[in-house]
Amino acid sequence: MRQSTDRQIVLDTETTGLDPNDGHRIIEIGCVEVINRRLTGNDYHQYLKPDWEIDPGAVEVHGITNEMLADKPRFQDISADFIDYLKDAELIIHNAPFDVGFLDMELVRSGNKSMIRNLCTVTDSLVMARQKHPGQKNTLDALCKRYDVDNSARDLHGALLDAQILAHVYLAMTGGQGALSLDSSTDASGMPTEEKIRRLDAERPPLRTIQPTTDELALHESRLDAVDKASEGKTVWRMP
Question: Which of 74, 78, 145, 169 has the greatest number of C-beta atoms within 10 Å?
């Protein structure tokens, strides 16, 4: 079983409706594994047969119908493997109470006495975004635009796709200077660098160099003298 304090699982679900207390069920689970701020590719994706009619409004959101799920396993059939995948990780969920509420209800129905927060820690990226960007829209689409994360494939909601997008958003939102990667294949948000680097033509004209004037050099030296005096001669640029 995988255990790591640096292991995070970015999770999303799709459901038959809005409230598990009304009988609604999970129909899709998507998870993206992140270890030490790197996407590992060890993702988890599962469609589920709900034994419950999907609300028409929900179908408009995710495009999943009962007919599409007729041959899929039920939650209790996959619960053991799913719990093993999640256990001891930190879950990153956008609007966590919604997904956790559904997951807890599914665990109860499958006879499992453990609730999600007994298995994992849970971080709500929506709460984080609201704290970081108060008074602004903090939907997943809004955050994609704010952090320049590509969500062009998101015509409909999908658990795995949304988890993948949220993983990039979360890493960008929490990255900062300390998260810069030395791996040339990915950037701080886990995005392939080749998708972001704009390479210049090797045959381009040389850049124009503008030399400072005598007056500008004198002003610069005057400023250095003032800084040197204030630091009692400890300025790095004038050390031998």
Answer: 169
Q: At 73, phi and psi to the nearest 5?
A: -70, 160
Least Cα distance to 58 among 155, 166, 154, 156 occurs for 156
Q: Is 62 a catalytic residue?
A: no
pTM: 0.71
Write the pLDDT tens digit of every residue in 177-199: 333 333 445 554 445 544 455 66
Pull the structure tokens for residue 179: 């998260």
Same domain, 20 and 93: yes
Q: Report yes or no: 37 and 117 within 8 Å, Cβ to Cβ.
A: no
Contact status, residue 159 vs residue 12, Cβ threshold 8 Å: yes
Same domain (yes/no): 157, 240: no
Q: pLDDT tens-digit profile of 141-170?
A: 999 999 999 988 887 789 999 999 999 999
pLDDT score, position 232: 73
Do 214 and 97 lie in one domain? The reply is no
Q: Which helix (H) or strand (E) holds 45?
A: strand 44-47
Same domain, 224 and 172: no
| Catalytic option among 45, 62, 94, 157 | 157
**Strand residue runs (E) in 56-176:** 90-93, 121-124
- Contacts for 177 with CB less than 8 Å, ≥ 6 apart: none
